[in-house]
Amino acid sequence: MGRVYGQGFPRECSISPLAITPWTSESELTQLVTGQWLACMNSTIWPAGSIGIEVRADQTFVMLIVDAGGRIARGPGVNYSGTWVFTDAGTGNGPLALGIRFDTQPGGGTWVARPVFTESPTQMKMGDILGQFTRPSP
Q1: Which of 128, 83, 98, 133 is nearest to 28 (CA)?
Q2: Which domain covers residue 113, as residue numbers?
Q3: pTM of the entire structure?
Protein backbone atom coordinates (compact mmCIF):
# COMPACT_ATOMS: atom_id res chain seq x y z
CA MET A 1 0.00 0.00 0.00
CA GLY A 2 2.92 2.39 0.51
CA ARG A 3 3.71 4.96 3.13
CA VAL A 4 0.97 6.95 4.86
CA TYR A 5 1.69 10.68 4.92
CA GLY A 6 0.45 13.62 6.91
CA GLN A 7 2.11 13.12 10.29
CA GLY A 8 5.00 15.57 10.43
CA PHE A 9 7.83 16.09 7.99
CA PRO A 10 9.74 13.27 6.29
CA ARG A 11 12.65 11.83 8.30
CA GLU A 12 15.04 12.70 5.44
CA CYS A 13 14.46 16.39 6.14
CA SER A 14 16.43 16.24 9.39
CA ILE A 15 19.48 14.47 7.91
CA SER A 16 22.48 16.54 6.87
CA PRO A 17 23.35 15.51 3.28
CA LEU A 18 26.76 14.05 2.46
CA ALA A 19 27.32 15.93 -0.81
CA ILE A 20 26.07 18.62 -3.20
CA THR A 21 24.86 17.36 -6.60
CA PRO A 22 26.53 19.54 -9.26
CA TRP A 23 24.77 20.67 -12.43
CA THR A 24 25.92 22.90 -15.29
CA SER A 25 23.07 23.12 -17.79
CA GLU A 26 19.31 23.59 -18.10
CA SER A 27 19.03 19.96 -19.19
CA GLU A 28 20.76 18.70 -16.04
CA LEU A 29 18.70 21.05 -13.87
CA THR A 30 15.47 19.83 -15.51
CA GLN A 31 16.41 16.22 -14.71
CA LEU A 32 17.15 17.11 -11.10
CA VAL A 33 14.05 19.22 -10.41
CA THR A 34 11.36 17.12 -12.10
CA GLY A 35 9.33 14.72 -10.01
CA GLN A 36 7.65 14.79 -6.62
CA TRP A 37 9.15 16.64 -3.67
CA LEU A 38 7.86 16.74 -0.08
CA ALA A 39 8.24 19.93 1.93
CA CYS A 40 10.55 19.95 4.94
CA MET A 41 8.92 23.05 6.43
CA ASN A 42 5.58 24.83 6.48
CA SER A 43 5.17 27.63 3.96
CA THR A 44 2.63 30.42 3.91
CA ILE A 45 2.99 30.91 0.15
CA TRP A 46 1.46 27.55 -0.87
CA PRO A 47 -2.24 26.65 -0.55
CA ALA A 48 -3.52 25.23 2.74
CA GLY A 49 -2.91 21.51 3.11
CA SER A 50 0.00 21.40 0.66
CA ILE A 51 2.72 18.94 1.65
CA GLY A 52 4.96 19.30 -1.39
CA ILE A 53 5.23 19.91 -5.09
CA GLU A 54 5.32 17.87 -8.29
CA VAL A 55 7.49 19.59 -10.88
CA ARG A 56 6.91 18.42 -14.45
CA ALA A 57 9.26 18.54 -17.43
CA ASP A 58 6.59 20.41 -19.44
CA GLN A 59 7.23 23.44 -17.16
CA THR A 60 4.08 23.04 -15.09
CA PHE A 61 3.77 22.12 -11.44
CA VAL A 62 1.06 21.01 -9.05
CA MET A 63 1.04 21.16 -5.27
CA LEU A 64 0.77 17.84 -3.45
CA ILE A 65 -1.72 17.07 -0.68
CA VAL A 66 -2.59 14.04 1.46
CA ASP A 67 -5.75 12.26 0.33
CA ALA A 68 -8.33 10.64 2.65
CA GLY A 69 -6.33 7.39 2.60
CA GLY A 70 -3.12 9.11 3.71
CA ARG A 71 -1.46 8.90 0.29
CA ILE A 72 0.22 11.63 -1.73
CA ALA A 73 -2.19 13.17 -4.26
CA ARG A 74 -2.22 16.14 -6.62
CA GLY A 75 -4.05 19.20 -5.32
CA PRO A 76 -7.38 19.96 -7.00
CA GLY A 77 -7.96 22.85 -9.36
CA VAL A 78 -6.03 25.93 -10.42
CA ASN A 79 -5.19 27.10 -6.89
CA TYR A 80 -2.79 24.16 -6.59
CA SER A 81 -1.03 24.55 -9.95
CA GLY A 82 1.17 26.84 -11.98
CA THR A 83 4.07 27.12 -14.37
CA TRP A 84 7.83 27.36 -14.00
CA VAL A 85 10.66 28.62 -16.20
CA PHE A 86 14.40 29.06 -15.93
CA THR A 87 15.56 32.57 -15.13
CA ASP A 88 18.65 34.50 -14.10
CA ALA A 89 18.77 34.23 -10.31
CA GLY A 90 20.60 37.51 -10.06
CA THR A 91 24.32 36.86 -9.72
CA GLY A 92 25.28 36.75 -13.42
CA ASN A 93 28.16 34.39 -12.67
CA GLY A 94 27.63 31.53 -15.12
CA PRO A 95 25.37 28.48 -15.07
CA LEU A 96 25.06 28.34 -11.28
CA ALA A 97 23.22 31.67 -11.47
CA LEU A 98 20.41 29.86 -13.25
CA GLY A 99 17.28 29.89 -11.15
CA ILE A 100 13.70 28.68 -11.36
CA ARG A 101 10.73 31.05 -11.37
CA PHE A 102 7.45 29.57 -10.12
CA ASP A 103 4.25 31.37 -11.15
CA THR A 104 1.17 30.28 -9.23
CA GLN A 105 -2.34 30.30 -10.65
CA PRO A 106 -4.50 32.30 -10.87
CA GLY A 107 -2.26 35.32 -10.34
CA GLY A 108 -1.24 34.09 -6.90
CA GLY A 109 2.37 35.15 -7.00
CA THR A 110 5.83 34.63 -8.43
CA TRP A 111 8.84 33.22 -6.59
CA VAL A 112 12.42 32.79 -7.84
CA ALA A 113 14.99 30.49 -6.28
CA ARG A 114 18.39 29.14 -7.19
CA PRO A 115 18.11 25.46 -6.28
CA VAL A 116 20.80 23.41 -4.60
CA PHE A 117 20.48 19.62 -4.80
CA THR A 118 22.09 17.14 -2.42
CA GLU A 119 22.87 13.44 -2.17
CA SER A 120 22.44 11.01 0.73
CA PRO A 121 19.68 11.99 1.22
CA THR A 122 18.34 13.62 -1.93
CA GLN A 123 17.17 17.11 -1.04
CA MET A 124 16.28 20.26 -2.97
CA LYS A 125 17.07 23.50 -1.15
CA MET A 126 15.19 26.52 -2.53
CA GLY A 127 16.03 29.27 -0.04
CA ASP A 128 14.15 30.67 2.95
CA ILE A 129 10.85 31.42 1.20
CA LEU A 130 10.31 28.32 -0.94
CA GLY A 131 12.07 26.06 1.54
CA GLN A 132 13.68 22.66 1.52
CA PHE A 133 12.26 19.49 -0.02
CA THR A 134 13.05 15.78 -0.14
CA ARG A 135 11.90 12.94 -2.37
CA PRO A 136 9.00 10.77 -1.11
CA SER A 137 9.90 7.35 0.27
CA PRO A 138 8.64 4.39 -1.77
Answers
A1: 98
A2: 11-134
A3: 0.84
Report if residue 4 sits inside a domain: no
Total tally of structural domains belonging to the chain: 1
Does residue 106 form part of some domain? yes
If you average pLDDT over residues 113-135, what whole number do you get? 87
Amino acid at the residue 76: P
Tally of CB atoms within 10 A around 80 = 21
Q: Confirm whether 22 is domain-assigned.
A: yes
Instruction: Identify the band that residue 97 occupies on the pLDDT scale cut at 50, 70 and 90.
Output: low
Which of 26, 91, 89 lies closest to 59, judged by CA? 26
Average pLDDT over the chain, rounded to an integer? 83
DSSP-based three-state secondary structure for 13: helix
